[in-house]
Amino acid sequence: MDVTVCGDSCPGRTAARPLVSIVTMVLNGARYLEPCIKSVLAQTYPDIEHILVDGASTDGGVDLLKAYAGRYPDRIRFISEPDRGTGDAWNKGLGMARGEILGWIGADDTYEPCAVETVVNFFRANPNAQFVYGNINFIDAQGAVTGTFEAKDVVLDELINEYCAVPTPAAFYKPAVFERVGGFDDLGNDLDFFIRVAKAFRMHRIDKVLSNFRIHEGSQNSGNRMGVRLMWKREDALVSRRHGGRFLSGYRRRYYQLLLTQRLRRMLGPVYPVVKSVLRKGTTR
Hints:
about 20% strand; globular; Spore Coat Polysaccharide Biosynthesis Protein SpsA, Chain A
């Protein structure tokens, strides 16, 4: 990925330039880490610090972080040490952040070139706003766009019971958000965080793609990590109930569906794809 600059379509700059802190957690994610770092460096908005929290990776990622921190000491900082999970790493990064605006992006994701400048201009135009989010593209392992998630306005009941309308890599917030609602649990469940935010603040939306969410063989959202997906579905169901969600919320239904799929796959073995195909045909008639 080459570092590019944005054209005339980007929002214009003004004199006031708050520092923006971007936090990235990484554990053995060297394969996609460099495009992530480059996408932050390529932002049209200049006043950004990129904080990378490494969980003691063993795949060469730490050497990459050292190289970039050495080349860009004023823009990139990192730590590398064991942690208790994604949430613990996230909280460490937030503790290191010095910015007036905060953001998070995964080690295998990237920002659109004008993302940060768009967000800064939004906060400048809306000084009382504390939280804003936009749309994301889905990209594959090679970086090709495979689809777009168009974020919706947050409705608290829907957020608690049905689905999360906020794409985490396209969300930005001010430190006052964390001061009021607190940080993350060790798992780093963003649904729990967003519900707490929605109960305390208005969550603003920008109708613009801000980031690119990569889905690949090793990612949580790929079909090849059923156990991880099941863990997150279960956690979302528990979070929903903890915040007063209905017994058969959308989160719980999806968890049970995935749980049933996993058990059928184990029971049927090689016959499972055939049964799945037959059931799929039956539902489309």
